[in-house]
Amino acid sequence: MILDHYSENRGSPTTFLVACPKTREAALINPNSALLEACETTLKRRNLRLVQVLLTSPGHAADAAVAELKEHRGRLQIHPQSKGSMTRISPQACSAQPSEYSSISLGNLQITPLADPRDCESVRYRIGNYTFQGGSLLIERIERNEFAATPPSPWTESRPARIPQTSREPRISNDDAAIGQLLLEDLHTSLMENAFSPKETLIVRSYIELLEENDLSHPSAAELAAKIGRIDRGVIHVLVHSIRWKQIDLGRMPLVLAGQASKWLRHLKTEPDFTSHEKEFLCAYLQLVATSGAPPSGPEVAAKLGSQRSIQWVRKRAFTIRRKQREFDQPLLLLTRNKAETDAFPRPVRLAPRRENFVASHPPVS
Q1: Are residues 50 and 83 in the same domain?
Q2: What's 214's domain CATH number?
Protein backbone atom coordinates (compact mmCIF):
# COMPACT_ATOMS: atom_id res chain seq x y z
CA MET A 1 0.00 0.00 0.00
CA ILE A 2 0.93 3.67 -0.22
CA LEU A 3 1.56 5.15 3.22
CA ASP A 4 2.32 8.69 4.38
CA HIS A 5 2.07 10.47 7.72
CA TYR A 6 1.84 14.06 8.95
CA SER A 7 2.27 15.72 12.33
CA GLU A 8 2.69 19.28 13.59
CA ASN A 9 5.68 18.41 15.79
CA ARG A 10 7.23 15.45 17.54
CA GLY A 11 4.86 13.89 20.03
CA SER A 12 1.73 15.48 18.52
CA PRO A 13 -1.08 13.32 17.08
CA THR A 14 -0.30 11.92 13.65
CA THR A 15 -2.55 11.89 10.60
CA PHE A 16 -2.00 8.90 8.33
CA LEU A 17 -2.75 8.62 4.63
CA VAL A 18 -3.16 5.15 3.12
CA ALA A 19 -3.96 4.38 -0.49
CA CYS A 20 -4.27 1.52 -2.95
CA PRO A 21 -1.52 1.82 -5.61
CA LYS A 22 -3.73 0.13 -8.23
CA THR A 23 -7.01 2.05 -7.95
CA ARG A 24 -5.43 5.22 -6.41
CA GLU A 25 -8.21 5.37 -3.81
CA ALA A 26 -7.06 6.92 -0.54
CA ALA A 27 -8.19 7.24 3.07
CA LEU A 28 -7.16 9.61 5.86
CA ILE A 29 -6.89 8.26 9.39
CA ASN A 30 -7.54 10.83 12.13
CA PRO A 31 -7.37 13.98 9.96
CA ASN A 32 -6.30 17.22 11.61
CA SER A 33 -7.35 20.61 10.22
CA ALA A 34 -3.83 21.98 10.65
CA LEU A 35 -2.45 19.16 8.46
CA LEU A 36 -5.04 19.07 5.70
CA GLU A 37 -3.04 21.32 3.37
CA ALA A 38 -0.10 18.90 3.43
CA CYS A 39 -2.48 15.98 2.87
CA GLU A 40 -4.12 17.70 -0.09
CA THR A 41 -0.71 18.40 -1.62
CA THR A 42 0.21 14.72 -1.42
CA LEU A 43 -3.12 13.64 -2.88
CA LYS A 44 -2.69 15.94 -5.86
CA ARG A 45 1.00 15.21 -6.45
CA ARG A 46 0.54 11.43 -6.35
CA ASN A 47 -2.73 11.42 -8.26
CA LEU A 48 -4.75 9.94 -5.39
CA ARG A 49 -8.50 10.25 -4.85
CA LEU A 50 -9.69 10.62 -1.25
CA VAL A 51 -12.79 8.48 -0.69
CA GLN A 52 -12.76 7.62 3.02
CA VAL A 53 -11.99 9.03 6.46
CA LEU A 54 -11.24 6.67 9.35
CA LEU A 55 -11.58 7.91 12.93
CA THR A 56 -10.14 6.02 15.88
CA SER A 57 -11.95 8.04 18.56
CA PRO A 58 -14.56 10.84 18.71
CA GLY A 59 -13.37 14.41 19.13
CA HIS A 60 -14.02 18.01 18.10
CA ALA A 61 -10.74 18.24 16.17
CA ALA A 62 -11.70 15.29 13.98
CA ASP A 63 -15.22 16.69 13.45
CA ALA A 64 -13.81 20.02 12.23
CA ALA A 65 -11.42 18.30 9.83
CA VAL A 66 -14.17 16.07 8.44
CA ALA A 67 -16.43 19.08 7.88
CA GLU A 68 -13.64 20.87 6.02
CA LEU A 69 -12.94 17.82 3.85
CA LYS A 70 -16.62 17.45 2.95
CA GLU A 71 -16.76 21.06 1.69
CA HIS A 72 -14.37 20.25 -1.16
CA ARG A 73 -15.76 16.82 -2.02
CA GLY A 74 -19.14 15.42 -2.79
CA ARG A 75 -19.20 11.85 -1.54
CA LEU A 76 -16.89 10.89 1.31
CA GLN A 77 -17.33 7.80 3.49
CA ILE A 78 -16.76 8.35 7.21
CA HIS A 79 -16.00 5.42 9.53
CA PRO A 80 -17.51 4.85 12.04
CA GLN A 81 -20.65 6.28 10.53
CA SER A 82 -21.93 7.60 13.86
CA LYS A 83 -20.49 8.52 17.22
CA GLY A 84 -22.74 5.97 18.89
CA SER A 85 -21.09 3.14 16.99
CA MET A 86 -17.82 3.96 18.74
CA THR A 87 -19.27 3.00 22.11
CA ARG A 88 -21.37 -0.01 21.10
CA ILE A 89 -18.67 -2.46 22.25
CA SER A 90 -19.28 -3.57 25.81
CA PRO A 91 -16.42 -3.67 28.33
CA GLN A 92 -16.70 -7.47 28.39
CA ALA A 93 -16.02 -7.59 24.64
CA CYS A 94 -12.78 -5.60 25.03
CA SER A 95 -10.60 -8.61 25.73
CA ALA A 96 -7.29 -9.95 24.48
CA GLN A 97 -9.13 -11.11 21.36
CA PRO A 98 -10.81 -7.85 20.24
CA SER A 99 -14.15 -7.88 18.50
CA GLU A 100 -14.25 -6.94 14.86
CA TYR A 101 -16.48 -4.57 12.94
CA SER A 102 -17.35 -5.26 9.31
CA SER A 103 -14.45 -5.05 6.87
CA ILE A 104 -13.88 -1.90 4.78
CA SER A 105 -12.65 -2.02 1.16
CA LEU A 106 -10.22 0.60 -0.10
CA GLY A 107 -9.47 -0.37 -3.67
CA ASN A 108 -7.63 -3.70 -3.41
CA LEU A 109 -6.88 -3.12 0.27
CA GLN A 110 -8.98 -4.67 3.04
CA ILE A 111 -9.26 -2.63 6.24
CA THR A 112 -10.47 -4.41 9.36
CA PRO A 113 -11.83 -2.22 12.20
CA LEU A 114 -11.12 -3.65 15.65
CA ALA A 115 -12.28 -2.77 19.13
CA ASP A 116 -9.47 -1.39 21.26
CA PRO A 117 -9.13 -3.57 24.40
CA ARG A 118 -7.59 -0.63 26.28
CA ASP A 119 -10.37 1.84 25.44
CA CYS A 120 -13.87 0.65 24.53
CA GLU A 121 -14.69 4.05 22.99
CA SER A 122 -11.92 3.72 20.43
CA VAL A 123 -11.47 1.78 17.22
CA ARG A 124 -8.29 0.43 15.64
CA TYR A 125 -7.80 -0.27 11.92
CA ARG A 126 -5.73 -3.17 10.63
CA ILE A 127 -4.28 -3.44 7.11
CA GLY A 128 -2.18 -6.59 6.84
CA ASN A 129 0.49 -6.39 9.56
CA TYR A 130 -0.19 -2.69 10.14
CA THR A 131 -2.52 -1.53 12.89
CA PHE A 132 -3.45 2.16 13.19
CA GLN A 133 -4.30 2.97 16.78
CA GLY A 134 -4.91 6.56 17.83
CA GLY A 135 -1.87 8.54 16.73
CA SER A 136 0.44 5.54 16.47
CA LEU A 137 1.15 2.83 13.93
CA LEU A 138 1.91 -0.69 15.15
CA ILE A 139 3.74 -3.19 12.95
CA GLU A 140 3.20 -6.75 14.13
CA ARG A 141 6.23 -8.74 13.08
CA ILE A 142 8.61 -10.83 15.16
CA GLU A 143 12.13 -11.38 13.95
CA ARG A 144 13.35 -14.97 14.20
CA ASN A 145 16.84 -13.92 15.23
CA GLU A 146 17.57 -13.45 18.93
CA PHE A 147 18.46 -9.78 19.13
CA ALA A 148 18.37 -7.52 22.15
CA ALA A 149 15.09 -5.66 22.56
CA THR A 150 15.26 -1.87 22.35
CA PRO A 151 13.03 0.90 23.70
CA PRO A 152 10.01 1.29 21.38
CA SER A 153 9.58 4.36 19.23
CA PRO A 154 6.48 6.60 19.55
CA TRP A 155 4.79 5.07 16.51
CA THR A 156 5.72 1.42 17.05
CA GLU A 157 5.12 1.09 20.76
CA SER A 158 3.70 -2.44 20.47
CA ARG A 159 5.97 -3.62 17.71
CA PRO A 160 8.32 -6.37 18.89
CA ALA A 161 11.20 -4.48 17.30
CA ARG A 162 14.54 -6.17 17.77
CA ILE A 163 17.88 -4.90 16.58
CA PRO A 164 21.38 -6.35 16.85
CA GLN A 165 23.42 -5.73 19.98
CA THR A 166 26.12 -4.29 17.69
CA SER A 167 24.61 -1.34 15.86
CA ARG A 168 26.64 -1.90 12.68
CA GLU A 169 25.34 -5.45 12.20
CA PRO A 170 22.46 -5.90 9.67
CA ARG A 171 18.93 -6.74 10.67
CA ILE A 172 17.93 -10.14 9.34
CA SER A 173 14.80 -10.61 7.24
CA ASN A 174 12.26 -13.21 8.24
CA ASP A 175 10.90 -15.57 5.59
CA ASP A 176 7.60 -13.83 4.90
CA ALA A 177 8.82 -10.22 4.60
CA ALA A 178 10.48 -8.77 1.52
CA ILE A 179 13.61 -6.71 2.08
CA GLY A 180 11.99 -3.75 0.34
CA GLN A 181 9.07 -3.92 2.77
CA LEU A 182 11.38 -3.95 5.78
CA LEU A 183 13.27 -1.02 4.29
CA LEU A 184 10.01 0.92 3.92
CA GLU A 185 9.03 0.24 7.53
CA ASP A 186 12.41 1.37 8.84
CA LEU A 187 12.41 4.56 6.74
CA HIS A 188 8.91 5.45 7.99
CA THR A 189 10.05 4.83 11.56
CA SER A 190 13.02 7.17 11.21
CA LEU A 191 10.84 9.83 9.56
CA MET A 192 8.42 9.69 12.49
CA GLU A 193 11.33 10.11 14.88
CA ASN A 194 12.71 13.12 12.95
CA ALA A 195 16.03 11.33 12.47
CA PHE A 196 16.90 13.16 9.23
CA SER A 197 17.80 16.69 8.22
CA PRO A 198 15.36 18.60 5.95
CA LYS A 199 17.28 17.66 2.78
CA GLU A 200 17.63 14.06 3.90
CA THR A 201 13.90 13.98 4.64
CA LEU A 202 13.21 15.16 1.09
CA ILE A 203 15.38 12.35 -0.28
CA VAL A 204 13.77 9.72 1.97
CA ARG A 205 10.21 10.74 1.09
CA SER A 206 11.00 10.65 -2.63
CA TYR A 207 12.77 7.31 -2.19
CA ILE A 208 9.71 5.86 -0.40
CA GLU A 209 7.36 7.04 -3.14
CA LEU A 210 9.51 5.45 -5.84
CA LEU A 211 9.61 2.18 -3.86
CA GLU A 212 5.83 2.18 -3.49
CA GLU A 213 5.18 2.99 -7.14
CA ASN A 214 7.70 0.48 -8.57
CA ASP A 215 7.00 -2.76 -6.67
CA LEU A 216 9.71 -2.12 -4.05
CA SER A 217 12.49 -1.75 -6.66
CA HIS A 218 15.36 0.44 -5.44
CA PRO A 219 15.52 3.75 -7.37
CA SER A 220 18.70 5.17 -8.87
CA ALA A 221 20.26 8.56 -8.16
CA ALA A 222 19.08 9.71 -11.60
CA GLU A 223 15.47 8.76 -10.77
CA LEU A 224 15.64 10.60 -7.46
CA ALA A 225 17.11 13.67 -9.16
CA ALA A 226 14.38 13.60 -11.81
CA LYS A 227 11.65 13.28 -9.17
CA ILE A 228 12.97 16.03 -6.91
CA GLY A 229 14.12 18.27 -9.73
CA ARG A 230 16.39 20.66 -7.84
CA ILE A 231 19.17 18.54 -6.33
CA ASP A 232 22.26 17.47 -8.26
CA ARG A 233 22.98 13.75 -8.56
CA GLY A 234 26.31 14.20 -6.79
CA VAL A 235 24.56 15.79 -3.82
CA ILE A 236 22.03 12.93 -3.80
CA HIS A 237 24.86 10.41 -3.49
CA VAL A 238 26.27 12.30 -0.50
CA LEU A 239 22.86 12.54 1.20
CA VAL A 240 22.10 8.86 0.56
CA HIS A 241 25.44 7.96 2.14
CA SER A 242 24.55 9.99 5.25
CA ILE A 243 21.05 8.47 5.43
CA ARG A 244 22.47 4.97 5.06
CA TRP A 245 24.80 5.32 8.05
CA LYS A 246 22.13 6.91 10.20
CA GLN A 247 19.92 3.89 9.57
CA ILE A 248 22.76 1.48 10.33
CA ASP A 249 23.56 3.29 13.58
CA LEU A 250 19.88 2.94 14.55
CA GLY A 251 19.98 -0.79 13.77
CA ARG A 252 17.72 -0.36 10.74
CA MET A 253 17.81 -1.37 7.11
CA PRO A 254 20.34 0.73 5.13
CA LEU A 255 19.08 2.69 2.15
CA VAL A 256 20.75 1.82 -1.18
CA LEU A 257 20.48 3.02 -4.75
CA ALA A 258 19.85 0.79 -7.76
CA GLY A 259 23.06 -0.73 -9.07
CA GLN A 260 24.98 -0.26 -5.84
CA ALA A 261 26.52 -3.23 -4.09
CA SER A 262 25.48 -3.40 -0.44
CA LYS A 263 27.01 -5.98 1.90
CA TRP A 264 24.13 -5.50 4.33
CA LEU A 265 21.49 -6.35 1.74
CA ARG A 266 23.57 -9.24 0.38
CA HIS A 267 23.71 -10.62 3.92
CA LEU A 268 19.92 -10.72 4.00
CA LYS A 269 19.69 -12.84 0.84
CA THR A 270 20.41 -16.53 0.37
CA GLU A 271 21.25 -16.60 -3.34
CA PRO A 272 22.58 -14.11 -5.92
CA ASP A 273 20.49 -11.99 -8.26
CA PHE A 274 21.45 -12.03 -11.94
CA THR A 275 21.06 -9.30 -14.56
CA SER A 276 19.15 -9.89 -17.81
CA HIS A 277 22.46 -10.42 -19.67
CA GLU A 278 23.63 -12.92 -17.08
CA LYS A 279 20.33 -14.79 -17.32
CA GLU A 280 20.70 -14.88 -21.13
CA PHE A 281 24.15 -16.41 -20.71
CA LEU A 282 22.96 -18.92 -18.10
CA CYS A 283 20.07 -20.07 -20.29
CA ALA A 284 22.44 -20.94 -23.16
CA TYR A 285 25.03 -22.38 -20.76
CA LEU A 286 22.58 -24.74 -19.05
CA GLN A 287 21.17 -25.93 -22.38
CA LEU A 288 24.67 -26.88 -23.52
CA VAL A 289 25.37 -28.64 -20.22
CA ALA A 290 22.14 -30.62 -20.57
CA THR A 291 23.08 -31.65 -24.12
CA SER A 292 26.73 -32.61 -23.60
CA GLY A 293 26.80 -33.41 -19.91
CA ALA A 294 29.89 -31.23 -19.42
CA PRO A 295 30.68 -27.51 -19.08
CA PRO A 296 30.88 -25.79 -22.50
CA SER A 297 33.65 -23.52 -23.74
CA GLY A 298 33.40 -19.80 -24.37
CA PRO A 299 33.16 -20.19 -28.18
CA GLU A 300 30.43 -22.83 -27.76
CA VAL A 301 28.31 -20.49 -25.61
CA ALA A 302 28.92 -17.62 -28.06
CA ALA A 303 27.88 -19.84 -30.98
CA LYS A 304 24.72 -20.86 -29.08
CA LEU A 305 23.80 -17.20 -28.46
CA GLY A 306 24.39 -16.14 -32.07
CA SER A 307 26.57 -13.63 -33.85
CA GLN A 308 25.52 -10.70 -31.63
CA ARG A 309 27.44 -12.10 -28.62
CA SER A 310 31.22 -12.26 -28.83
CA ILE A 311 33.53 -14.54 -26.85
CA GLN A 312 34.61 -11.49 -24.83
CA TRP A 313 30.96 -10.81 -23.95
CA VAL A 314 30.55 -14.43 -22.86
CA ARG A 315 33.68 -14.35 -20.69
CA LYS A 316 32.62 -11.12 -18.98
CA ARG A 317 29.25 -12.64 -18.07
CA ALA A 318 30.98 -15.78 -16.79
CA PHE A 319 33.31 -13.65 -14.65
CA THR A 320 30.50 -11.65 -13.00
CA ILE A 321 28.40 -14.78 -12.41
CA ARG A 322 31.38 -16.58 -10.87
CA ARG A 323 32.01 -13.62 -8.55
CA LYS A 324 28.38 -13.57 -7.39
CA GLN A 325 28.41 -17.32 -6.83
CA ARG A 326 31.52 -16.98 -4.71
CA GLU A 327 29.88 -14.29 -2.52
CA PHE A 328 27.06 -16.69 -1.64
CA ASP A 329 29.23 -19.83 -1.36
CA GLN A 330 27.53 -21.35 -4.40
CA PRO A 331 29.23 -23.78 -6.86
CA LEU A 332 31.39 -21.79 -9.26
CA LEU A 333 30.58 -21.69 -12.97
CA LEU A 334 33.18 -23.33 -15.26
CA LEU A 335 34.13 -22.73 -18.89
CA THR A 336 36.33 -25.31 -20.60
CA ARG A 337 38.91 -24.64 -23.30
CA ASN A 338 38.58 -26.44 -26.60
CA LYS A 339 41.18 -26.88 -29.35
CA ALA A 340 39.76 -24.14 -31.59
CA GLU A 341 39.92 -21.65 -28.75
CA THR A 342 43.50 -22.67 -27.92
CA ASP A 343 44.61 -22.24 -31.55
CA ALA A 344 42.91 -18.86 -31.79
CA PHE A 345 44.79 -17.58 -28.75
CA PRO A 346 48.25 -19.27 -28.82
CA ARG A 347 50.46 -18.80 -25.81
CA PRO A 348 53.55 -16.62 -26.43
CA VAL A 349 56.82 -18.54 -26.75
CA ARG A 350 59.93 -17.04 -25.23
CA LEU A 351 62.95 -17.50 -27.55
CA ALA A 352 66.60 -17.35 -26.56
CA PRO A 353 68.52 -14.46 -28.18
CA ARG A 354 70.48 -15.35 -31.31
CA ARG A 355 74.25 -15.55 -30.80
CA GLU A 356 75.22 -13.05 -33.48
CA ASN A 357 72.75 -10.46 -32.16
CA PHE A 358 74.06 -10.93 -28.65
CA VAL A 359 77.66 -10.52 -29.83
CA ALA A 360 76.81 -7.49 -31.98
CA SER A 361 75.14 -5.72 -29.06
CA HIS A 362 77.92 -6.64 -26.64
CA PRO A 363 81.27 -6.20 -28.43
CA PRO A 364 84.22 -7.95 -26.81
CA VAL A 365 86.33 -5.97 -24.43
CA SER A 366 89.87 -5.47 -25.65
Answers
A1: yes
A2: 1.10.10
What torsion, rounded to 10 degrees, do the Cα atoms 191, 193, 195, 200 define?
Answer: 20
- Higher-confidence residue of 166 and 131: namely 131
The pLDDT value given to residue 91: 38
Q: How many domains is the chain built from?
A: 3
Q: Is residue 231 part of a domain?
A: yes
Residue 357 burial by CB count (10 A; 0-12/13-18/19+): exposed, middle or buried?
exposed
Mean pLDDT of 336-348: 52
Same domain for 210 and 295, yes or no, is no
Amino acid, res. 60: H
Q: What angle do CA 319, 323, 324 make, to 5 degrees?
A: 120
Q: What is the span of the domain harbouring residue 303?
A: 276-344
Name the pairing type of β-strands 49-54 and 25-29. Answer: parallel
Domain for residue 303, yes or no?
Answer: yes
pLDDT digits (tens, 9 = 90+) for 275-312: 899 999 999 999 999 998 889 999 999 999 988 899 99
Least confident residue range of 221-235, 307-321, 345-359: 345-359
SS3 content of the chain, % helix, strand, coil (to 5): 40, 15, 45
Asked if 250 and 283 sit in the same domain, the reply is no
Find, among 52, 59, 54, the residue nearest to 80 by Cα: 54
Are residues 18 and 107 part of one domain?
yes
Whether 323 and 287 map to the same domain: the answer is yes
Q: Over pLDDT 70: what percentage of the chain?
A: 70
Which one has a higher pLDDT value, 166 or 116?
Answer: 116
* 117 inside domain: yes
Of the candidate ranges 58-62, 202-206, 297-301, the one whose mean pLDDT is the lowest: 58-62
**Domain-embedded: residue 227:** yes
pLDDT on residue 87:
38
Distance CA 226, CA 224 (A): 5
The residues, ordered by sequence, that sit 6+ positions from 187 with a Cβ below 8 Å of its Cβ are: 204, 207, 208, 247, 253, 255
237 and 307 inside one domain: no
With 90 as the cut, is the pLDDT of residue 181 above it?
A: no
Mind giving me the DSSP string for 63-74? HHHHHHHHHT-S
